[in-house]
Amino acid sequence: MMTLKSWSVCWGVAISSVLLFPSISRADVVAFLNGATVIESTSFKGESDHTVSGKVDIVKKDEVYYVVLGEDFSFDGAPDPRLGFSQEDIFLPMSVFSSLNLDSGQQIYRLPATLTINNYDEITIWCEKFRVPLAEAKFEVREEAQSP
């Protein structure tokens, strides 16, 4: 596993309101994620005729897990996009942890401590209004990626 310390040039400017910071500087993102471990790294693929791309990581800092959308993240937009998880291409509404804050750029979302990420095999951007997947990012969660 690599630490985010070596990724200092990769961090962008937006951090989710879930962390109570609407936006911070690149240096602040680097400082915030310093010492975090990348648990999973994958990329989004559009679904339901949507164009979505960009890197997404699950990282762990201390005992807290975060979803980090890369600086290259791009989403063509839809009403009411939510972030959650799926298992075997089935979206699980109970896994929703946030609305999507921005259609592009780096974003950081704190995962709830009650969410066990080992139960899922992909991150999903879900349209709540039309109840369809907008994008998926498949991964294989490792054993250590278990929330307490």
Please describe the structure with a list of short key phrases separated by commas or semicolons.
148 residues, disordered C terminus, 1 helix, 12 strands, four-stranded antiparallel β-sheet, six-stranded antiparallel β-sheet, 5% helix, mainly beta
Structure, explained:
This protein starts with 25 loop residues before the first helix and ends in a 10-residue tail after the last strand. The protein has 1 helix and 12 strands; from the N terminus they run αββββββββββββ. It has one helix at residues 26-33; strands at residues 37-43, 45-46, 52-53, 55-61, 64-69, 74-75, 81-87, 90-91, 98-99, 107-110, 122-127, 132-138. Residues 1-22 and 144-148 have low confidence and may be disordered. The longest helix is centred in the N-terminal third of the chain and has 8 residues, at 26-33. It has one domain. The protein is mainly β. A hairpin with a 4-residue loop joins β11 (122-127) and β12 (132-138).
